[in-house]
Known about the structure:
Strand content of chain A: 15-25%
Order of helices and strands of chain A: EHHHHHHEEEEEEEHEEHHHH
Structural class of chain B: alpha+beta
Largest sheet of chain B: 4 strands, antiparallel
CATH class of the largest domain in chain A: Mainly Alpha
Number of domains of chain A: 3
Mean pLDDT of chain A: 97
Largest interface: A-B, 52 and 54 residues
Number of helices of chain A: 11
Helix content of chain B: 40-55%
Number of helices of chain B: 11
Structural class of chain A: alpha+beta
Distance between the termini of chain B: 40 Å
Oligomer: heterodimer
Shape of chain B: globular
Strand content of chain B: 5-15%
Radius of gyration of chain B: 22 Å
Largest sheet of chain A: 7 strands, mixed
Order of helices and strands of chain B: EHHHHHHEEEEEEEHHHHH
Low-confidence stretches of chain A: none
Number of strands of chain A: 10
Shape of chain A: globular
Radius of gyration of chain A: 20 Å
CATH architecture of the largest domain in chain A: Up-down Bundle
Strand order of the largest sheet of chain B: 3-4-8-7
Helix content of chain A: 40-55%
Amino acid sequence: xxxxxxxxxxxxxxxxxxxxxxxxxxxxxxxxxxxxxxxxxxxxxxxxxxxxxxxxxxxxxxxxxxxxxxxxxxxxxxxxxxxxxxxxxxxxxxxxxxxxxxxxxxxxxxxxxxxxxxxxxxxxxxxxxxxxxxxxxxxxxxxxxxxxxxxxxxxxxxxxxxxxxxxxxxxxxxxxxxxxxxxxxxxxxxxxxxxxxxxxxxxxxxxxxxxxxxxxxxxxxxxxxxxxxxxxxxxxxxxxxxxxxxxxxxxxxxxxxxxxxxxxxxxxxxxxxxxxxxxxxxxxxxxxxxxxxxxxxxxxxxxxxxxxxxxxxxxxxxxxxxxxxxxxxxxxxxxxxxxxxxxxxxxxxxxxxxxxxxxxxxxxxxxxxx
Amino acid sequence: xxxxxxxxxxxxxxxxxxxxxxxxxxxxxxxxxxxxxxxxxxxxxxxxxxxxxxxxxxxxxxxxxxxxxxxxxxxxxxxxxxxxxxxxxxxxxxxxxxxxxxxxxxxxxxxxxxxxxxxxxxxxxxxxxxxxxxxxxxxxxxxxxxxxxxxxxxxxxxxxxxxxxxxxxxxxxxxxxxxxxxxxxxxxxxxxxxxxxxxxxxxxxxxxxxxxxxxxxxxxxxxxxxxxxxxxxxxxxxxxxxxxxxxxxxxxxxxxxxxxxxxxxxxxxxxxxxxxxxxxxxxxxxxxxxxxxxxxxxxxxxxxxxxxxxxxxxxxxxxxxxxxxxxxxxxxxxxxxxxxxxxxxxxxxxxxxxxxxxxxxxxxxxxxxxxxxxxxxxxxxxxxxxxxxxxxxxxxx
Lengths: 370, 397
């Protein structure tokens, strides 16, 4: 049945995270972006909401809550409405944890999930992106070749979130170098494995404070048990789409934030004797921004909801939502900057940061997942 | 709990609506070319909505709420390619009903509803010089004994030819602006009423559009909708607000008509290209797609986004929550896609899409009105901007 109402739990978490985003994330965002580093205290505060451990089964020490892509979309939208960089730093380990919950064998869950249920923030990453332009997730250049009962991984992963601190990487690779999604598997790689080199990235236009790393895999020997899901493997499309929709959900929050920031300014700023908000060229821009914030949210919620139910229409809904958010959210961030004119270009205000972050979230798959 | 899936029975109903709607496709071109001919009650090969209605009995009470589902039905109905009778809204119903009936139901007194409820009533607001700015209406109504005397001209009266009468907006006090505007029920046999002409249009040709003239047109005193003859100081009168409330309910329905035409054109393009071996692979990411595939994705995403805003506005109404802002949001989106998606569907198909061999061009022509009537896209943006900026209609014009 068609229903737009969040359940009580989702409503509650949404409200508390919106407050956290407005009171903690947003006020510090500008300075944190300049510093290029998310303070440990922020990650700690985010961790304390129990978002990462919420859906980990109780037997592994987690919250035992429902594993809900829609709930995660709501969470990411709320955090993205405060600061996408800090939100991503808080939620990036969720990419690893959710994949383990969804596809892990009992042994894999028992080995890895308890690490994320403690009081201290734990870091792990999904290593998806690669260095080539026009990267397509279904065409991985990183390869996994069978060797005896184990695997040998070769390749290079880029922009790996929390790469500086992640204890484990979930590395996507094409089995035996084959093409297509069916050949894409995920491997749990401890960072201290021989042949794994982690180097800081040169920097990134957007999500600047999010630690990102280049992870090089050179003849990395892994046991058979490193393959996520064991013999059953994973539904790579679902895993990748969860990352795509994760970024989209954050972009929706960011778009709403930029719109809500531009509205009072347009009412304050006077030109030719009246507030610019009273000119239709500006008023209609704001109206369009509002319209698309709404439309984007339903597209993302629908995609997340269908992913959650493993609906046959999920893959299509994800493509449509990602396409829509890619086109609309970047336009909203860009128009918000335009309304501020020259002030939007100055780094005192968050407009230029939002534009950089919106561009990043709409070209990267991830760095968060629903 | 938020959910975006139709139940099995609802999906069956939606599929059946399209199937039935397609049963008269062979006749569609004829009525495009003969727009003054009203199609007979049943065309050759036509299947009726009596096939659909019994299926509603199988719906569970806790399924998608009714207004929301009817928007989905309307989108399905309007995406079919058969002959469309009545309004472009294409809402299947047991009996014909016009926009004026909605106004009567929301603003009429119980006596008025009982007296006129069975008539087919059009809505007559627009004048040759007055469109969206309804408070500038020039048609006057003057009380003379026990009768109102109307003078003025009206255009763009949807269903105005086939309707029994219309709800007509006229001012009883021009100096009072919006507060002086009242709505009157005028039957076609009223002395001084004239049906001037039927318009020839770009699309929705099966829906007639009339022009009326009122020359000392006399109607009974109790024909004032809602019965309030006073002119309040400041703010609109109750009957004006009553009619505006109607718009609040009808905007999602009209938006659904725009989405329907987008959907119809898109379906046509998707099917036609699939026959030639071109289709979207939903597992492929952006860099792997052709330009045509990417265009199809954009058209579908735009259509889907518009559809969701329509369902959301209707869902709020089902939940008895305010939906004024959301009604304008969905009307703006429906108005966007009826233009961009129908045009884009023709773009991916190329030159032959304009040929009368095919019906895809009809979706573009039929859809175009959806960004005009029931408030243009610009009016919707004005309403949205006022709401989000906290401006009154005087502060932002």
